[in-house]
Amino acid sequence: MAGKTGTQVKARTKAQVDDHAAPEPMTAAAAGRRGGAAVREKYGEDYYRRIGTLGGNALKQKRGSDYYRDIAKKGGRANVEKYGPDHFAEMGKKGGTTTKQRQPSDFYSRIGKLGGTAKRNKKSPTEQ
């Protein structure tokens, strides 16, 4: 058996080659989900809340509390331009309907009285 070696290379079919092909690259979204799950597993469920609070407090100290009001106004204006004022009226109606379903029947009466009481108890600048 001249010319034969101890191991022979066997021809593989295309199916066999495909089975051993390198896995397809992961998308950025899939990598983000995988990384986020690993962090949650390592540090716990409330980790993101804790670091978000720290970051928010640092930003508030750096830029002041007016910063949040300003970015909220910008976001609100952008949403009005994008969706129109009717969108917000519809969202308000949906929210009111949901609140009405979830709360007892005297809910609106109670909060109305609280608001009225608060206005009566608030002193005007000239009364102080």
Percent in strands: under 5%
> What is the alpha-carbon Rg in Å?
31 Å
Structural class: mainly alpha
Individual helix count: 6
Tell me the span between the first and last alpha carbons: 113 Å
- Estimate the global geometry from the Cα principal axes: elongated
Largest sheet: none
Mean pLDDT: 84
Low-confidence stretches: none
Kindly state the number of beta strands.
0
Share of residues in helices: over 70%
Listing every helix as H and every strand as E from the N terminus to the C terminus, the arrangement reads HHHHHH
Fold and architecture overview:
It is a single chain. This protein is mainly alpha-helical. Helices cover 70% and strands 0% of the residues. The chain contains six helices and no strands. It is elongated. The model has no long low-confidence stretch (mean pLDDT 84).
Key structural traits:
single chain, 128 residues, mainly alpha, 6 helices, 0% strand, elongated
Please describe the topology of this protein.
Layout: H1 14-19, H2 28-43, H3 47-63, H4 66-83, H5 85-102, H6 107-121
Quick summary:
With 128 residues, this protein is mostly helical. The protein has helices at residues 14-19, 28-43, 47-63, 66-83, 85-102, 107-121.
